[in-house]
Amino acid sequence: MKFKLILLMFTNIMNYNNNWAMAEAAKGGHMDKVQLMLNKGEIAKQSPPVVSSKTKPFGENNYNWIMAHAAEGGHMDIVKLMISKGAKEYNRAMVHAAEGGYMEIVRLMLYKGVRELSSQPFDAPLAHQRAIGYDQAMACAAKGGHINIVRLMLCKGARDYNWAMGCAALGGHMKIVRLMISKGADDYNRAMESAAGAGRMEIVVFMINKGADEFNWAMAFAAGGGHMDMVKLMLDKGANSNILFEAKPLKIEEPRAHFSINDYNRAMAEAARGGHIDIVQFMLNKGANNYNEAMIFAAESGHIEIVNLMLKLGADDYKGARAEAKLHDYIEIIDLLQTYI
Length: 341
What we know:
Blueprint: H1 2-27, H2 31-39, H3 62-73, H4 76-85, H5 90-100, H6 103-112, H7 134-144, H8 147-156, H9 161-171, H10 174-183, H11 188-198, H12 201-210, H13 215-225, H14 228-237, H15 263-274, H16 277-286, H17 291-301, H18 304-313, H19 318-327, H20 331-338
Helix pairs in contact: 1-2, 1-3, 3-4, 3-5, 5-6, 5-7, 7-8, 7-9, 9-10, 9-11, 11-12, 11-13, 13-14, 13-15, 15-16, 15-17, 17-18, 17-19, 19-20
């Protein structure tokens, strides 16, 4: 019995590795490798019982997974091959193709039978809460600046204009930003924050002129992206350390949060996570003093110089920072913090 379990585990691992290798080959457009692996039987049609988070979203049919990767790379021939093998998750492939700007694949997926699955409210705060449908395809196309696909999704009924505007702001695509506003988008603060994090000054100024005023959060996004000019603009507009606010995520997967209400501290922590020591120093000069938070964020991302700086300033949550470094195998930081424990 034990031998059978070990054999099953080994088989599952081999199947997963083969499936992942084929997905990467499909994304790169290597039809010869895909065909070779198919001919050799090195693709398990069904996902193994032990799967990773990378495989779960694609359902049990691994051809769906491979089709999505091929769509992401714009490789129509491999997409059609996977359809002939039984791939049917057209929604996901459409979204991947939309982000890359591959109109022909988007149209093929629509023809094959994309279903609108949206069931979440349109003011849902996190992108992953939306179902995979026209709204997500529009948002992904907006981020990539593919206005023709954006317009196609509008024709199909996409109407989460704020989501698409935020993605367009992140990508720096003013024409799509204006299009979404003409449709009714009005979450100027979220768009400003996205643009600030990506250093899109033109769009940030545009959003401020439209009425965006959450400068504290935009400053944190800008600090995380390493955009000193944007940080200073937010300070000029009124970002300060005395405003209380509801903590909200800077990353999609990050929960609504436990971070300090001192905006300089939040900006310093985000700069530490990004490794932007100049902005860290700038925030220190402004009065940021949550050294532990900044040290933990720096340890999480492997920035030993900032970890050292926070230690010198008095940070003492050695175990917390070491735990974050250990999760990502930052050996130098692990060894450094061990000397303090």
